[in-house]
Fold Ribosomal protein S6.
Amino acid sequence: MVLSSGGIIRNTKFLGRQYLPKVMGKHQQLHFAGHHFHMMFDASPKVQNDIYTLLKSDPRMVRIMVVNRAKM
């Protein structure tokens, strides 16, 4: 999605399987641990919103966070 819209993926890291700080419920299931990953990318605000919406609807994702870090 990022690449097809002309954005740039700067870095991806898989941080491994880690225990969550607290038990989280999502999609009628309780989650105690999860696979964590980190992806840095540059894309337009619309693409960022589309990625957030897509990941939020994925039942495999427990928590999603998209941070806008604009350069000054």
